[in-house]
Amino acid sequence: MTTTISIPTAEYNRAKAFAKERNLSIEELFVALLGQLTSEEDVIWDKHDSDILPYTHEELMARIDEGERQFEQGEYKTHEQLMSELKEEFSWLR
Question: What's this model's pTM, rounded to 2 decimal places?
């Protein structure tokens, strides 16, 4: 059976680039994604970890303190460094 779907060009091009980076055809990518969405044992939106709890006030303050310490010691990336890394990692989003 063959089915035709309409996908906006920009999204199709991003999906095609994503598939190419993984040595898949666009059809193989769609089949794999649809398989994940329809699998009874692996439905993405049904997965959640009930053991995950929000951060406590103390945990949040500790994270802030650690971030400030790292900044003061020069352990950070500039905006340009971060954007460069993100563009390289997610090149298919262009």
Answer: 0.38
